[in-house]
Fold DNA polymerase IV.
Amino acid sequence: MQLADKHIIHMDQDAFFVSVEIKKDSRLAGKAVIIGGLSDRGVVSSCSYEARKFGVHSAMPMRMARQLCPHAIFVKGSMDDYSYYSHQVTELLQERVPILEKASIDEHYIDMTGMDRFFGCMKFAQELRKTILDQIGLPISFGLSINKTVSKIVTNECKPNGEKEVSKPEVQPFLNPLSIKKIPGLGDSTFIKLSEMGVRKIHTLTQIPPDLMFKILGQNGLSLWQKANGIDLSPVVPYREQKSIGKQSTFDSDSMDVAGMKVLLTDMVTKLAFELRQQHKLTACVTVTIRYANFETVTQQAKIPYTSLDSILITKAKELFDKVYQKRMLLRLVGVKLSHLVGGYEQISLYGPSEKMYNLYQRMDKIRNLYGTDAVRLATVFPDKIGR
Ligand SMILES: [Mg+2]
């Protein structure tokens, strides 16, 4: 079978956070709703299509959103609720499809290749979408095409409440008239660069020799050129095989210093959370592992609402450590792992214990990017320094 013969469905909830809020309070339906940090320094996490008509979009400063759409209903949002419904959709899909990748809190890819001989893929996807609408009650759109990139662009074009198939011979005619902005992963600075060269439509981008794209934008240029030409070989990665990140420390000499271990744990979690934010990812599961001096190894795991914030992860990791460390025996190793990773970043503004914390994290990440991971730490990592 040729690589180009894939059948990939991309499913994406419509204005996911807003839809969950409407499910909780039907009076919000049909209104301009903006979710995010409510102070002027906050950021928009999500907004209804009615608010988008006024130019509001996610990641926009809340102050600007208020100016553009003063009559909107502003909601702080609840990551617990969004995570709950996110898992519901994933579980429903997991039971029904061969290969499922969870790309973000409200997005999934399904690889139907091979199944198309038994089912019509379009009919299957339509039934799936209807099942989600009926059983979970949240609006969803999908695109069906030959690879992940094209399917995602198709979904974005038919949202909200849309479904569309773009078969192989239709791919290039479908892509050509679209703005290059529609290519997933094409950032603002690249858009400006290409615009200045007169490249605004995908069709124009396909006409540029790939080696020139490489010269101008490096590997990313080549990848954009491929996407413009409807080429994307990236596989749908099954949810259970999706990556996790972790760290562990072995002690120089076996130890029973619980406070010291928690400091170590905090330090490891801080670094992992930073890594998570750098990759624009969120985690929904924390695992703590300890190994006793006699090599007995024990593990505790907990599911949490999607997050990438240190404070939430540190609290959970310490809690798990207390649960797992039951024997008053010397320890030789402690480890922590973050799994169930999905894409998502702007939503971070929702999680924070407060907006101050959110701004603090952003600043700390900036310093780490400039001077290295160890350049800045929370005072809790050095408990002796704050007179505990
Ligand atoms: Mg969505």
In short: The chain is about 40% helix and 20% strand.
